[in-house]
Amino acid sequence: MKHSWAARIARAQDLSQQNPSAAELLGFYAHIAAFQKSFYDDLQRTWPAGGIDAVVPRMHGLLKVVAKHGPPELAEAARTSANNEARWREILASSDADGDPAEIFFARALLQPYTEFLASMADINLNSTKPVCPFCAEKPVVAVLRGEGDGAKRSLVCSLCSIEWEFRRILCPACGEQNKDKLPVYTASDFDYVRVEACDSCRAYIKAIDLTKNGLAVPVVDELASVALDVWAGEKGYTKLMPNLLAL
Q1: What confidence score (pLDDT) does residue 151 get?
Q2: How far apart are CA 88 and CA 92, in angstroms?
Q3: What's the confidence (pLDDT) of residue 52?
Q4: How far does Cα 177 stand from its chain's mean position?
Q5: How far apart are CA 171 and CA 180, in angstroms?
Q6: Is residue 35 within 8 Å of residue 21, measured between CB atoms?
Q7: 3: which of 7, 72, 186, 233 fits an S-S bond (Cβ 3.0–4.6 Å)?
Q8: What is the sign of the dihedral through the CA atoms of 14, 41, 67 and 138?
Q9: pLDDT digits (tens, 9 = 90+) for 171-218
Q10: How far apart are CA 174 and CA 199, in angstroms?
Q11: Cα separation of 164 and 144, whole Å?
Q12: What pLDDT score was predicted for residue 97?
């Protein structure tokens, strides 16, 4: 059900033309996704390879991409991290990286294609009813709505391995709230196919991409492009269930 790396890159490039306010963000993402695609493709060619030893050598390439194309602070962090392989191993072993935003980004950008590749070979129970990924136990980064009968079914997309699993429409993935009156949905005319699905009990939200309204959308990319909705949700006192790769 997930979209290929090539589809993600192409969608980011298309949206950067359609949405000038997010063009810089999407341009950077396209460079990162191109690096991730290369890593994923190499894993397909060379697997089996040994665990973290298949990941660590790729950090050099990632840091070069970020130093060249990243925003100033992240680019500087990439340059200063270039020769610290011991630290790379530490942050790859724990992607929270002690809360340092740059290290969190480096770890997740590198682990995403690796974990996605492992998930592609696994036998995963996609009928899980849990609000976390049934493969890697990470939180979802975006929801997806697809047509089913007279309505639409909802699935969640993992923030790390990108697999999708079905999840009830009227249920908060953060706290389990089921009262529809406490689960408001917000949309904006600029992104009529992107919904902010909020919870007034725990004040969390997740964005949902409605493919019945825009079949060209690539959920993880369109989630990034609609950053204006994240700003709005934050101003209303909601907190995102799981930030995306770019910490938005």
Answers
A1: 66
A2: 6
A3: 67
A4: 24
A5: 8
A6: no
A7: 7
A8: positive
A9: 999 999 999 999 999 999 889 999 999 999 999 999 999 999 999 999
A10: 8
A11: 9
A12: 45
DSSP line for the chain? -PPPHHHHHHHHHHHHHH-GGGHHHHHHHHHHHHHHHHHHHHHHHH-S--GGGGTGGGHHHHHHHHHHHS-HHHHHHHHHTTT-HHHHHHHHHSTTGGG-HHHHHHHHHHHHHHHHHHHHHS---TT--SSS-TTT-PPEEEEEEEEETTEEEEEEEETTT--EEE--SSS-TTT----GGG--EEEETTEEEEEEEE-TTT-EEEEEEETTT-TT--HHHHHHHTHHHHHHHHHTT-EESS--TT--
pLDDT value for 51: 66
The domain limits of the chain are: 5-121, 140-240
**What count of other Cβ atoms lies within 10 Å of the Cβ of residue 67?**
17
* Amino acid at position 182, single letter: K
At residue 127, the pLDDT reads: 78
| Measured distance CA(226)–CA(155) in Å, rounded | 19
Low-confidence ranges of the chain (pLDDT < 50): 1, 97
Q: What is the pLDDT of residue 44?
A: 87
Q: Report the distance separating Cα 31 and Cα 145, nearest Å.
A: 27
